[in-house]
Amino acid sequence: MAVNRRLGRQAGGLLALLLLACNCLAAPAVSELLEQAETLRSSDPARFDALLTQVSQRKQELSSAQGQQLAYLQAYRLAFAGDYDNAIPRLKNLIADSPDSDTRFRAGALLVNIYTKSRQFADGLRQLGDTLVHIDQVHNSDIRTHGLIEAAYIHNEVGQYRLGLHYAERLLAAELPPRTRCFAEYLRYDAMQNLAVLPTSDAPMEEAIRTCESIGEVVLVNYVRTTLARKWVAERKRDAAIVLLQRHLPEVERARYPFLTVQFKSLLGELMFEKGDMAAADSYASETVALSSAVGNTYALVSAYRTLYQVAERRRDDETALVYYRRYAEADKAYLNEVKARELAYQIVRQETLEKSQQIQRLDSQNQLLQLQRKLELKSGQNTRLIIVLLVLLLASIAFWAYRTKRTQISFKRLAETDALTGACNRSHFTQRAERLLAQAGRTGEEVALVMFDLDHFKNINDRHGHAAGDWVLRRVVELGRGLSRKVDLIGRLGGEEFAMLIYACDLPSATRVADECRARIAALDSRETGHVFTATASFGIASTAQGGLELARLMSLADRMLYRAKHEGRNRICVYEGGYGLTDHSAPASNDGLVEETSPPRKPTDAGVERLGT
Q: Is the keyword Aminoacyl-tRNA synthetase assigned to this protein (predicted)?
């Protein structure tokens, strides 16, 4: 019996070894697993994660090149999940340590993508420059196209859509694998949408959608669908756009990519509100806001708060509407500030690149001069005049580049201080100059008045007549404000359709007269040169240092309260903070939606009165 048991145990051990050997023979090679992971990394995130886990468990089988490939894919997985803090150092280490030029270029391109996603645009543009300079050293054509894709993507994100379109079309001019073509098509249509040059036919975009669908690229195909839906909205095919978005929303949610999800849901919220389905609009917008912590300040968040504000207003829930309106205004200002920051990041990196180029040119010139001097030392003194000529040319070159640099710096300073559309002070510059004027008023004892005003229902002008008409109104408002102010006064665009005037050596009655004249001129604007007929109005809030003190923040707070009161009381009116109680009506009748269609030239509104409020 004992002998039989011993023989049985030996037989069982041999069987286990045979089974283990069979399993090893059946397991796919790590090269196959890595190849599958490369193919599925953006189309099937769950399978991609499982493949990386299998490869990680077999690290001892990896060659040096396969280990670097695994390190890249692990960083890609972290980036796709939004864990940029851990992905960035891994990629930097890969760039520093890898001996392979293809791997370094690939890691650099992914790093550009991460910086773009995390809104570190200056770092992304610098990394793009450091990466593309090595593109001729890359052997794999697919990896080279990866770098060009990231170039198109980051230029679209910083508002340089013509450059983004240039890179995308450069890619599409060559023979591309389906996945790369899908990326390039998405970037091309994103740039074309922002440049307002989308093709009139849907066929090219539908072909791009089929290309992305054929390879299972869920994220990219739905980005293109979003662009197509916005095109349909512009063509007044709202119901078709809703059907398209709702049909594919489940697969977008399964992809777990928050940047895409908020675009779908915010757009659905807008469309359902326009359709009159308040419950659906509220639901989509609320879900967008819930996801906002993962994507930061985006236009989708601005759109969601605007939808929630409009839904509450439609339901006559004034308290909730006011809360969401404030959040909408804050999100809109934050988004505009981020857009400005993107533009500034591009200008900063462009300036840095220019300065580096100039420095290299100066060093080259100096090096050439030194070489010439060495040669001239071997020659006779008859060549002295040649040296003098070369020195003069060098000094002239340095002076020329110094002059160019100074002009660039002056242009950059002007860009940082003014609003590009209207030419008025931007919020930051207005605040700095206003604080200096208030300090001066404190020393001289002069009274200073702050007038804040906001265009009423400005979105209706954009929606009904286009952004070109809205931009015309904003520029004309600033021109009217300048016509009513002196050199010592300030006028600034605080964000969107909100403006402020700081009037030096001016009491409340005088400031009220200026504001009322500005209100009347805005209401009397003749819009026919835009090709549309409409009336614009504005609501005003006024505070002065006599009642509010010399602190700018308090003055802006008081004027802002008066502005919101003017909005609440019916718009197209002025509310004045006087530190005491008493109300006098001064308004022009407000229309239902802030936009009046006319068939004859607009009439100048009659004066009514001023609301004076105190605490």
A: no
Q: Average model confidence (pLDDT) for the chain?
A: 83
- Which residues, 6 or more positions from 567, have their beta carbon under 8 angstroms from its beta carbon? 454, 456, 539
Structure tokens at 328: 């909408």
Provide the edge-to-edge strand list for the sheet that holds 538-544: 490-495, 498-504, 448-455, 538-544, 574-577, 611-613
H or E stretch at 371: helix 318-377
What was the pLDDT predicted at 380? 66
Cα–Cα distance, 551 to 558 (Å, whole number): 11
Q: How far apart are CA 249 and CA 245, in angstroms?
A: 6
**C-alpha dihedral (118, 119, 121, 126), degrees to nearest 10:** -20
User: What is the spatial distance between Cα 445 and Cα 310, in angstroms, rounded to a whole number?
Assistant: 45
The mean per-residue pLDDT over the stretch 353-382 comes to 72
Query: Is the separation of the CB atoms in 303 and 281 below 8 Å?
Result: no
Tell me the average pLDDT across 258-265. Answer: 90
Paired residues of 80 in beta bridges: none
Confidence band for 615, pLDDT divided at 50, 70 and 90? very low
Residue 103 has pLDDT above 50, yes or no: yes
Contact assessment for residue 460 and residue 593, using Cβ atoms and an 8 Å cutoff: yes
Count the Cβ atoms, other than its own, within 10 Å of residue 69. 22
> Which residue carries 């020393």 as its tokens?
443
